[in-house]
């Protein structure tokens, strides 16, 4: 799944879907590996968006532009 263009909310929803799939435990090791990699990429993407938002809020509160 291409996730470079996902919004934070869509990425988070996909992470939740992957967790649900992993909890079922009915996938083969190859598919599990791909799902874990996808989830890891999505988590990294979400963290980046959160960091950027935090920086923007901090700048706004400090009167910076």
Written description of the protein model:
By secondary structure, the chain is mainly alpha-helical. It has helices at residues 8-24, 29-61. It is elongated. The chain has 2 helices and no strands. The chain has a domain at 28-65.
Topology:
Elements: H1 8-24, H2 29-61
Family: Belongs to the XseB family.
Protein name: Exodeoxyribonuclease VII small subunit
Enzyme class: hydrolase
The 3D shape can be described as elongated
Order of helices and strands: HH
Strand content: under 5%
What integer is the average pLDDT? 91
Q: Would you report the number of β strands?
A: 0
* Main sheet makeup: none
Q: Separation of termini?
A: 36 Å
| Structural class by sheet pairing and helices | mainly alpha
User: Given the structure, what is the number of helices?
Assistant: 2
- Into which percent range does the helicity of residues fall? over 70%
Stretches with pLDDT under 50, minimum 5 residues: none
Q: Report Rg.
A: 16 Å
InterPro entries: Exonuc_VII_S (IPR003761), Exonuc_VII_ssu_sf (IPR037004)
Pfam family, one: Exonuc_VII_S
Organism: Shivajiella indica
Coiled coil: 29-56
């Amino acid at each position: 799944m291409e996730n470079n263009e996902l919004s934070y909310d869509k990425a988070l929803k996909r992470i939740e879907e992957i967790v649900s799939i992993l909890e079922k435990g009915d996938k083969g090791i190859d598919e599990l590996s791909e799902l874990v990699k996808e989830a890891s990429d999505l988590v990294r993407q979400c963290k980046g968006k959160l960091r950027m938002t935090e920086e923007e809020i901090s700048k706004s509160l400090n009167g910076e532009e």
